[in-house]
Amino acid sequence: MLKNKKKNKWMKPLLLGVFVLLGAFGFAQEKTITGTVVSSEDGLEIPGVNVVEKGTNNGTSTDFDGNYSITVSGDDAVLVFSYIGYVSQEQSVSGTNQINVSLAEDVSALEEVVVVGYGTTKKSDITGSVSSVKAEELAAFPVLSAEQALQGRAAGVAVQSNNGGEPGAPISISIRGNTSIGSSSAALVVVDGFVGGALPQPTDIESIEILKDASATAIYGSRGANGVIMVTTKKGKKGRMLVEINSSYSSQNTTERIELLNANQFAAYRQAINPAYIQGTAQTDWQDLIYRTGNISNHQLSFSGGSENINYYVSGNYFNQKGVVINSGFERFSFLSNVDVQATKRLKLGFNAYANRGNKDGIQSQAGSGGSGGGDVISTAYRFAPDTPIQNENGVNTTNPVGDQFDNPFAIATESIDETKTDEYRANFYADYELLKGLNFKTTFGYSTDNQTRGRFQPSTLIGQASTQGGIASVASVKGTNIISENYLTYTTEIGKGNLTALAGYSYQKDRTERYSAGAQGFLSNSLSYFALNAGSDIQTPTSSLTEREIVSLFGRLNYEYDDRYLLTFTARRDGASNFARNNKYSFFPSGAIGWRISNEGFLKDNETLSNLKLRASYGVTGNPSITPYQSLANFQPIYANVGDQTVGAVVPDLIENPDLKWESSYQANIGMDLGFLNDRIALTLDYYSIDTEDLILRNSGLPEYAGLLSNPFQNVGEINNTGFEVTLNTKNVVKENFSWSTDLNWSTNTVEVVKLIEGADIFLDSSPGSFLQDETHILREGEPVGVFWGYEYRGVNQGTPEPGTAGYSETGAGDELFTDLNGDGVITGDDRKIIGDPNPDWIAGLNNNLRYKNFDMNIFFQASVGGDIFSYTFLELASGESNATPAVLNAWTPSNTNTDVPSAGVREKRITDRFVYDGSYVRLKNLSLGYNLPIDIVDKIGMQGIRISLSGQNLLTFTDFPGTDPEAQYRSTGSQDSNVNRGFDYGSYPNIRSYTLSVNLKF
Q1: Which of these, 334, 328, 418, 382, lies nearest to 993 by C-alpha position?
Q2: CA angle 405, 408, 412 (to 5 degrees)
Q3: How far is CA 266 from the centre of its chain?
Q4: Which of 37, 684, 805, 846 is the least crowded, having the fewest Cβ atoms under 10 Å away?
Q5: 3-class DSSP state for residue 672?
Q6: Cα 141 vs. chain centroid, distance in angstroms?
Q7: Band of the pLDDT at 388, cuts 50, 70, 90?
Q8: Mean pLDDT of 368-391
Q9: Is the pLDDT of residue 6 over 60?
């Protein structure tokens, strides 16, 4: 026993020592890992991410700032980072004590939420036709406005500048064609719930949803016929403040120029017309003089963040564009703020504010008259004699030495003043209160104001335009205010296997527009511009006007989803508007839609290939407000009259009343299919639609002149039909850890046909410059597309004896023009005109490719329009013999050059013929960009969250047969009564521009 006790005496310390050594060895193998987890999409920290040592229960989660700390078993440990909605990621801890992780969103795990009128819905539950455009697409390259960024991004949506690349030029957006003839077809814009709001900068927008069919747009009733653009601006997210700087600089040049005769060629051409012409001494390229290298500077600073109860986003933007035409430019400052507050458990409050100040330096383009004293910078650069200098030997600006007398383009561009200042402000407040479980009440109140002042001055140094008047100045001001109040209840509940969402609400909106204008002529000095109208010796009659409109509405929507398979939507709105006649101030706009998610049926639910199959169908009625206030009332216009030897004010009848005038109504049917393959790596959406727009508001020109009216009265007597097919294809071609490639394709057709006109009679329209002395350039005819060109069919050159079925107009000799003699009477008159072209494209498309390799990314974006014709007033004028010309006249008919279709040199009447109708089809490389994101470990070391640099080019290549500067040009397509039908005309348009851009994005 004693022996054993001695043994235990040394065994216990030995065992204790071994245990301590083993513990020490184990402790030495443990290590602590720290780091931060952020989102790869925006670089923001993600709180609550699970961080677990793989194969153990050892774990932790990130704190409010996305930080974590965990002690692992050793250098061989692997950490697993996981969070709902993100792709899980594994990281080995070998050789490091800090691991920062960037988690990517798991697209397949997220159910995309889409913004619709007065709410949101899951994309899988949509029964209507809706296209979505995300923030990264809108900010792919620098543009003046979000409207420009939408071009080519969504099927059925046509976006076009009304004046090429002019800084600050208006942008027209049509969704599924034009649903009206004499009224606006502009889509309704809703920004953060404010109906009629101005679009903010693309970099401030989170997403845009485009509502296209009646099921989606009928919730906006009388204003939904042209589609609805739902804009959601960026909001703050929970986490510490994110400071972001976006800065870009672009260098710009013209994409194309028109080839013209040089001074020697011009002189020879003039001498062929008039042998007495003496060539001038100059060699002037007027296009070189008016065009320059332009640029864009675009800078944005934003702050965003949030806590448990409040989120905020504040952004300021500065945009400055120097146009490619001298003296043109646009500058804008803008501000956006969003604040959302969870005031109590049930009450949520929010405030949105937007403001911008714009300054536009305009130059004269797309002139309404190009005759003596008229003209604009662009068209005169084409027409002006190249053998003439800018100023003569006396230092006086030159005027065109042949044909009409007008000022040279350099003088017009540098000495005319056309300045527009615009101030916009919008504020929108909301309160959302949960009355009961599933029942919420939301109230919003918004106010906006838009003030625009345009000052114009033509100095007396412009010989052709203002010298005889001693200078001409004018100022016009427009002030618009808009208030809106909307209140609605939303109820959501489960009923058995189904989910019901019901919406009911009331809306009130009032807008007010004040207009003022004044002008003067005869100034002693040109130095005061338009700021001293009282200094003019001839004060023009000032004008002013006031219009007000109120709209009150009741609206509701019912959505029911049963068993994740069957979908039902019913929407209705009743609108009352003050601008309509007393017998039709109210109208009802209903719609209904059904959907069937076939892929959730038992026989397809587990199909590994087909991941989504949904059928949709909808039908409904939407409206177009169509007219400005007071157009249904009897109106008088003020005039001056002579009583004896005195001039007195008087009035004359303008319009007779029409108490039955009502909304234009569009009856729209839509059938759609959504398909997904291979876990939605391939997503296809197909839609077919037909829109019958009835009760078109047209002016009745059939009243006799002895009625004594200045204007023809409005009547509901027309009908047009739009039909089309839309395809949207999204594919994830390659999805690997270090490389990905996705493609987005949209393709759409639209056919618009005139169905009914007043007594079936043709309506002839004219959009030509006043100096052309035309009265009919395009036509509305039952059974034909809207706005087709109307004119003569050109048959070539008279070789001495006209071919059978042809004749000359007034010139009938060899070398003169020949046209088709439609009625066979041997002479060409107005009765020999026919439809000679269709400006409506057959289809439009956009193709977008995004490629990513490690930290590099590339975007390749093509946009196309195929089938629309263009009638060029520019080339018609250049072929008239009154001014400069294209080199085509060098191949003019002569007795020794008879094998040509160019008539002999001479001054000819500007006739509308198919000789100047061109195919306006084009395919354009809209954007090509290459970007690089600095690795997160490098960025983290310098205390930042992200650094991105990119190089891009816009409008790099255009494939087209149109010989002008831009196949997208539109002359007189905005601001006029018939702007919807004035399509496909080109004259004096600002050229399109090619840009090269360097962009930097910094996140702190």
Answers
A1: 328
A2: 110
A3: 41
A4: 805
A5: strand
A6: 14
A7: very high
A8: 84
A9: no
Q: Exposed, middle or buried: residue 377 (CB in 10 Å: 0-12, 13-18, 19+)?
A: buried
State both tokens at 485: 């109040």
What residues are paired with 296 via a beta bridge?
250, 321
Q: Residue 527 has which token pair?
A: 């130095």
- With beta carbons less than 8 A apart as the criterion, state whether 81 and 49 touch: yes
- How many CB atoms sit inside 10 A of residue 743's CB? 16
* Sheet-wide strand order for 205-211: 130-134, 205-211, 228-233, 188-191, 194-195
Neighbours of 325 (CB within 10 A): 27
Predicted pLDDT at 979:
67
Cα–Cα distance for residue pair 186/192, rounded to 1 Å: 19
| Greatest alpha-carbon span in the chain | 152
Q: Is 525 exposed, middle or buried (0-12, 13-18, 19+ CB in 10 A)?
A: exposed
Beta strands in 625-662 (DSSP E): 635-643, 646-655
Determine the Cα–Cα distance for residues 432 and 440; give it in Å rounded to an integer. 7
Q: What is the pLDDT of residues 498-516, one digit of tens each?
A: 999 999 999 999 999 999 9
What DSSP element (H or E) covers 594?
Answer: strand 586-597
Joined together, the tokens standing for residue 93 give 């801890």
Q: How far is CA 516 from CA 534, 537, 550, in A?
A: 16, 21, 22
CA dihedral sign of residues 194, 199, 202, 207: positive
Three-state DSSP state, 56: coil
For residue 543, the model assigns a pLDDT of: 92
Three-class secondary structure of residue 608 per DSSP: coil
888 and 905 Cβ atoms separated by less than 8 Å: no
The residues pairing with 699 across neighbouring beta strands, listed in sequence order, are 714
Tokens for 298, please give them: 């675009």
pLDDT tens-digit series, residues 268-299: 999 999 999 999 999 999 999 999 999 999 99
* pLDDT score, position 196: 87
Q: How many CB atoms lie within 10 A of CB 202?
A: 26
Average pLDDT over residues 671-677: 95
Please give, one letter per residue, the 3-state secondary structure of 806-835: EECCCCCCCCCEEEECCCCCCCCCHHHCEE
Cα distances from 537 to residues 469, 520, 541, in angstroms, run 10, 7, 13
For residues 91 and 99, the answer to whether their CB atoms sit within 8 Å is yes
